[in-house]
Amino acid sequence: MNQVFYQLPEAGFLRLNQIVKVPGKSEPPIIPISRTSFLNGIKSGKYPPGILISERTRVWPVEDIKKLIAELGGANA
Predict the structure, then answer these.
(1) 49 near 42, Cβ under 8 Å?
(2) Distances in Å between the alpha carbon of 60 and those of 2, 15, 24, 71?
(3) Distance between CA 11 and CA 54 in Å, rounded?
(4) Residue 26: helix, strand or coil by DSSP?
(5) Closest CA to 58 of 20, 29, 25
């Protein structure tokens, strides 16, 4: 089975559709779970809450996602 790893930038922010599975998106997700599972994980405290930059837009610092990948046991965090 071929695995494709998402190349994270050194710094900056990521939007939800870059982090998790999005229907119809051809690129592999950084974290292979659904949007709903990720949002439920935020509510439970399992995943970082991100930063609300407008009424309906939330972003996550790359550093937070790298730390999450490391905590989840991912490679190349």
Answers:
(1) yes
(2) 28, 6, 22, 16
(3) 20
(4) coil
(5) 20
Tell me whether strands 13-15 and 57-61 are parallel, antiparallel or unpaired. antiparallel
pLDDT given for residue 1 in this prediction: 41
Distance separating alpha carbons of residues 63 and 75, to the nearest angstrom: 15
Among 33, 36, 27, 23, which Cα is nearest to 65's?
Answer: 33
Q: pLDDT digit string (tens) for 3-53?
A: 545 678 889 999 999 999 888 877 788 898 999 999 999 999 999 999 999
- Residues 15, 22 contacting (CB under 8 angstroms): no
φ, ψ (nearest 5 deg) of residue 62: -55, -40
Token pair of 7, please? 């190349």
pLDDT at 23: 84
Mean pLDDT of 55-59: 95
